[in-house]
Specification:
By secondary structure, this protein is α/β, with parallel strands linked by helices. 33% of the residues lie in helices and 22% in strands. A hairpin with a 5-residue loop joins β2 and β3. α8 (230-239) crosses α9. It is globular.
Length: 281
């Protein structure tokens, strides 16, 4: 399989493994640095509708696990969405939109997973199942950790851009393929944990910019975000296990330390997350 972005057939296999499918390999393009799985055929038409991402589905637990990110995303976008009509594409459990309803003029969601329908009714979120069903244009469209799941992200971004109002914005958040645990600290245990069969692509700043460019759209900015603090990284390097921020965070992490660590990693392009704002040219 040639590179989705540049068409090159030159690649190397990254160290590590796909945690839920050992037959898959992780490729990195030697021309443009796009990271992608060796095969996409396991993500069939019903994969997301039937909750394959949440095999032991527990909505209360899911809500709790995403709450910190939902709040962070709301704080990041609160001024942008004020009195605006917004659509969250791949909206998961709807947690972000529930917060966004405090500022936005209207909130809508496009989500395939069927298990969250009742919660959307509770939150008062207008829910769509197919992009073809969208009936209006929006001021802001958000995609939080969705694009890495799409087998053809360029086509989806182009379609979504057609649903933007004049001057509208798309906010995209994705994992960073240059995550420090992979490319700076070279944690073997993390490389056997972080790759997932649902994540077909991983982008860094360069490949994210190129993807947007190929969609004939403009990158307003790309910001580096560190979701997991220093305690998490030290725990990986010391114990070879996740959840270090839960084990060591209370005595190690502080706002000042987390900000400084994020800034240091951002200067190297090695935070765990990227957020881009894009618009029509």
């Amino acid at each position: 399989m040639s590179c989705y972005l540049c068409g090159s057939s030159e690649f190397k296999y990254r160290d590590g493994e796909v945690r839920d499918n050992k037959e898959l390999k992780i490729k990195e393009c030697q021309e443009c640095s796009l990271v992608y799985l060796s095969d996409f055929s396991h993500v069939d038409e019903g994969f997301y509708e039937d909750s394959n991402m949440h095999k032991s589905f527990d909505l209360a637990r899911w809500n709790k696990e995403t709450d910190a990110d939902d709040k962070r995303r709301y704080e990041f976008t609160r001024e942008l969405i004020k009195n605006k009509e917004i659509l969250d594409f791949g909206s998961g459990n709807g947690g972000y939109l529930n917060y966004a309803s405090k500022k936005a003029k209207s909130i809508s969601a496009l989500e395939l997973e069927t298990a969250i329908s009742e919660q959307y009714k509770e939150y008062g979120i207008e829910l769509f199942r197919d992009i073809k069903d969208l009936v209006k244009k929006y001021d802001v469209i958000t995609m939080f950790h969705v694009m890495e799941h799409l087998p053809n992200p360029k086509e989806m971004i182009k379609q979504l851009s057609s649903n933007l109002k004049e001057g509208g914005k798309i906010i995209i958040e994705v994992p960073n393929s240059d995550d420090a645990l992979l490319t700076l600290y070279e944690s073997e245990s993390f490389s056997k944990f972080t790759y997932w069969s649902c994540h077909l692509f991983l982008f860094n700043e360069k490949t994210l910019q190129e993807l947007v460019h190929q969609c004939a759209l403009k990158v307003d900015y790309i910001k580096h975000i560190q979701r997991y603090p220093l305690s998490n990284h030290l725990y990986w390097l010391s114990k070879d296990k996740p959840a270090g921020h839960q084990k060591w965070g209370k005595f190690l992490d502080s706002d000042a330390l987390s900000d400084a660590y994020e800034n240091s990693l951002a200067s190297l392009g090695k935070t765990d997350t990227l957020i881009a704002q894009i618009s029509k040219i």
